[in-house]
Amino acid sequence: MKQVWNIFRKDARRHWPEIAVSLVALAGFAWLDIRDWSHTDSFAATGFSILIASRFLPGLVDALLPISWMFLIVRVVQSESLVGDRQFWITRPYDWKQLIAAKALFMLVFINLPFFIMDIFLLSRAGFHPAHHLIGLLWMQLMWILFLFLSAAALATVAKNIPQMLLVVLLIALYMIGMVALSQVIPSADAPSGGDSWSALLLIGTALAVIFLQYSRRKVALSRWLIVGFCALMIVMMVATPYRSLVARAYPNGNLPVQLALVPAVTHDSGSHSIYDGRVPISFPVSVSGLPLDSFLQLNGMIVTLTNADGFRWDSGWRGQALSLFPDQKKANIGFDLKQNIFDRLKSAPVTVHLLLAFTLFHSRNQREFTVPSGEFAWPDVGLCFSEGGYWNRVRCRVPLRKPTAVLISSETAASTCPPVRTSTPPKPGVFAHGTVWGDSEPAEMGISPVHEVDIYLSDWDTSDSNATYPGICPGTPLILSTPEMVGRSRLELDFENLSLAEYGIGSGTGRVVIRP
Amino acid sequence: MTSAIQTDILVKKFRRVDALQGLTLNVPQGAVYALVGPNGAGKTTAIKILMNIIRATSGRAEVLGTDSSQIRGRLLEPIGYVSENQEMPEWMTVDSLLNYLRPFYPTWDTNLEAELIKQFDLPRNRKLRHLSRGMRMKAALASSLAYHPRLIVLDEPFTGLDPLVRDELIQGLLDRAEESTIFVSSHDLAEIETFASHVAYLEEGKLRFAEELTTLANRFRDVELTFDAPPSLPQKTPDNWLQLSTSAAVVRFTDSSFASERTGADIRAVFGEPRNVTFSPMSLRSIFLAMAKSGRNSA
């Protein structure tokens, strides 16, 4: 223990400027975060307030704070550099376990502890009792340690100094860009494969192995090869994962209590189509029926295959979705996009469409009624909320640590207490609008702030043109809340023959649009 | 006498370069052992293996009875190491360096520390980065002597130092010589000669010889033979005669195995009876020059 304390004190003396910078960044983050969710603006329209309002300053601090932590970690690890054979400390009686402990203590005291204290402060300022959220707060710290601090420390052990470390960071940035580019060309690379958990475990394992190898034996070459091996393994995992088989296994072909049928498309005027970033959005309107009253479906993702008479085949690969289908819902739109050149090739002749839709079926449990109060109110199991008027007529909530795992909100559109919008048609009685909130099942979301904002709004999908409208939640609006309980996952496969794709391209009107005949 | 350092056929290869080619050494406890040789001979490589800074390709080394590849942590407590190219914590003052290192050594002697500071005239509150090269070496040495190490390992400690600083360093070492074994590498032969008890000569990774300095000095002689007429050089001479040369009626060579009677007999066997024979003791520098030159010639 004597060495731990001795090395810790030395590092604290040596790195006080870096510590001060990270603490200032932390204080700045806390100040900006409070301003963000308390929606206060005590400044006049000065240049400073414009910087805040434009999100430039908060964005800068959001990036600077983790960078200052990483820099501090790199500096403190490299105080006793593990690369090279000229460092004075390697011929001194350092106990490597105590050296690691000293570095860990430094990070805990000067990064995690202030971070933890700030989170307690933010939670309490946001109106939550920190003692009720201790596990979540500790979970956040653990996630930062496992996924960022540990990785930064591992990389610092194989780099001799800051220039070498910058080179390592540059190489990693290039690697990440390459991985993103690779994921774009591998169909279904973002399908639920369970690979993320393996990747996370491998990352932590590699980081720990490198740290222990370096501190116990200073095996620089082997440690660097371990890191390279990890990166190579990630590529292999991405390329070799049988995504389609995993999707098929995760979503077995079962009997879903729903019927979907294609609704004839409304032909677009002038046959023009929107093009967003060189991609044409396509929407298949479908009729929905057969869902039991106490159930609803969530579309998690889909795979679209288009084939024309020439034998040309286009496969979308896995496309993540977040579409809910409710029992009282009659119609829905299933949308995707495809590259403009593919669309041009397929639009003129009839195509065969195969849709693989991956659904999760939920039962609505624990139904209860709730009337939205005016002003700020505590929404049980959600957070502290207030009804936000204006265009959206939604409820905005501050939630501690994470969004609620699952909440289904329903309301009869005719019961909305929001002032009617002049252009909208009067709501019909018996028509319900729904909203959902989905959160992680972990104790906390990964992030710096423990206070998150959630917007709760309702969508009515049953209008004549199948486009969503927003009935609105205002003070006095009666809501029916329920807790979705997952029943199971299943896939539904649909085939549409002789379809004219041109009729299902979404017409121009918004966004960056190129009109094509 | 037991060994402070023992190496057995130590080999170190850096890709295609053979830095050490089967080094076998035995450094007795209490010795002031000098490892000498030209630049690139493998001295620093040998020391780094002894200190477990790098690993040997093959062979074995023991330091204070422990396999050198296991030397780390507490096993470094009885060892002091100073190198000319060591990266010191430049941001520390002399005082903070000593304060920092003190808890690492159970045998740290604060009185000795004060004595060394005084002896080396070290400015306590000056940062290492602001010290001259000589002062930095003295600070490094003070931080390596203050805990009464049983073994002091020095890698080229005198390189680039002015004579006054060198004398101070040597005196500092000699003051500790009774309680420690000193293993020092150097190519500064004149300095080594003043305080070493043993010497080993390393060249191109190979150990040319290793022995006590007094034995070495007794073994080597400059021999000068004067004849009445220029003698004819023989085809074959004893292997221990190095750098044989003639100038008119004078023949000169270095005898590396000098023994008065045997050398006289060898001379008479090769040349007959010379008019005059002179045997002159050699400095360490002359011995190494003779060794180095004969090595190159034979190569």
Descriptive account of the structure:
- The complex is a heterodimer of chains A (517) and B (299).
- By secondary structure, chain A is α+β, with helices and mostly antiparallel strands.
- Chain A has 11 helices and 13 strands.
- In chain A, strand 3 and strand 4 form a beta hairpin.
- In chain A, helix 4 packs antiparallel against helix 5 and helix 8 packs antiparallel against helix 9.
- The radius of gyration of chain A is 27 Å and the shape is globular.
- The termini of chain A are far apart.
- Chain B is 32% helix and 30% strand.
- Chain B has 9 helices and 14 strands.
- In chain B, a hairpin with a 2-residue loop joins strand 9 and strand 10.
- Chain B is elongated.
- The mean pLDDT of chain B is 90.
- The chains are: A alpha+beta (517), B alpha/beta (299).
Please give a quick description of this structure.
With 517 residues, chain A is an alpha+beta fold. Chain A has eleven helices and 13 strands.
